[in-house]
Amino acid sequence: MQAAIRGVTIHYEIEGVEGGPFVTFSHSLATSLALWDPQAALLREKFRVLRFDTRGHGSSSAPPGPYSMEMLADDLIGLLDHLEIEQTHFAGISMGGMIGQVLACRYPERVDRLVLSNTVCRVDPGAAPLWEERIRTAQTRGMEALAPDTLTRWLSDQFRRTRPEVTDKIREMIVSTPVDGYVGCSRAIGAFDISEELGKVTSSTLIIAGALDESTPVSAAKEIGERIGGAEIAVLPGALHLSNIEACELFNRAVVKFLER
Question: Which domains does the chain have, with CATH numbers?
Answer without folding.
Answer: 2-260 (3.40.50.1820)
